[in-house]
Hints:
This protein is mostly helical. The protein contains three helices and no strands.
Amino acid sequence: xxxxxxxxxxxxxxxxxxxxxxxxxxxxxxxxxxxxxxxxxxxxxxxxxxxxxxxxxxxxxxxxxxxxxxxxxxxxxxxxxxxxxxxxxx
Length: 90
């Protein structure tokens, strides 16, 4: 731009809209996140119970693996929800 002129401001990008399928996914995802979080909490409580170690000590490794998988599933759902919300403009 020549001196003394204000450079043109590029137009703001148009907000992307979600497809019908994505709208339906977004509507259902919060319930999935709640269910997933409840599973993580349940598994953490089970691992925090001293009786678990006394009575079912052989299952510790398996339960820890299950907990890590549950956390990864929850985190993936949260990431997807954040992605859809950002595309929706919310």
